[in-house]
Write a structure and sequence with these properties.
Shape: elongated
Number of helices: 6
Largest sheet: 6 strands, antiparallel
Structural class: alpha+beta
Oligomer: single chain
Number of domains: 2
């Protein structure tokens, strides 16, 4: 009798592994379908021009779907989807998304409550340089930005390099420039001060979806990163 039971154990283990494997496959297929549906709903209710890239994090997915509450939905937004200038992108996380399974399956979704949204929006250096005009070039320099541009002061064309700091003023991104230099060119300090003033920038950050508000700003390798967040928001559309 004991030998018979011992012989059944490997079979049960194999069956159990097959069952678990099947459940994992079903879960992954379901999450793929859900990500497509969530992308459509978010695009419709977030004022986007098209469905974004969506990842529903957390495992297993089916327990989240059955409860109608999703802990972590990650969304990558391009400039085109945001209907913003090229060089803008955003990566946001919707935390605590309430979407009943029956509503999602039927397509009868009028609103999607979300407990919290946070993430970042990136404004590329070419985008900001274009706003400054001329031959402006921007790059990260430590905690600040290096600005290089040829400026005209008192009829003189002067190639200037300056150090800038970045800050937020309401919904505006502000670059304040100081300590300008003209390299080996001997230029009076008063002229350099005037040149530095010409390199300042105030850029109104375009409105972002999901009620996101600007929180802080940091220079990075490929652009200025603006941290954004929102709480107790509802996606409607």
């Amino acid at each position: 009798m004991s030998r018979r039971r011992a012989g059944c154990l490997p079979v049960l283990v194999v069956l159990l592994l097959l069952l678990v494997g099947a459940l994992v496959v079903v879960d992954r297929v379901a999450v793929g379908v859900a990500e497509d549906r969530v992308a459509e709903q978010v695009a419709a209710r977030g004022g986007l021009t098209g469905p974004p890239e969506v990842e529903v994090a957390g495992f297993p997915f089916l327990t989240q779907a059955l409860s109608g509450e999703y802990d972590d939905i990650r969304i990558r937004l391009t400039a085109e989807e945001l209907a913003q200038p090229a060089g803008t992108r955003a990566d946001v996380v919707l935390r605590g998304v309430h979407l009943p399974l029956s509503d999602a399956l039927s397509g009868q979704v009028s609103e999607i409550p979300v407990d919290r949204v946070d993430g970042t929006a990136t404004l590329s250096y070419p985008l900001l340089a274009e706003r400054m005009g001329g031959d402006t070039a921007l790059a990260q320099e430590g905690d600040g930005i290096r600005v290089a541009r040829t400026v005209e002061v008192l009829g003189l064309q002067i190639p200037v390099t300056a150090a800038g700091t970045v800050r937020l003023d309401g919904q505006d991104l502000v670059i304040d420039v100081g300590d300008a230099s003209a390299g080996a060119v001997d230029v009076p300090d008063a002229v350099l001060d005037r040149a530095a003033d010409l390199l300042d920038l105030r850029y109104p950050v375009p409105a972002l979806p999901f009620g996101l508000q600007l929180v802080s700003v940091t220079p990075a390798a490929d652009g200025v990163v603006v941290r954004v967040e929102a709480a107790d928001t509802v996606l409607r559309g």
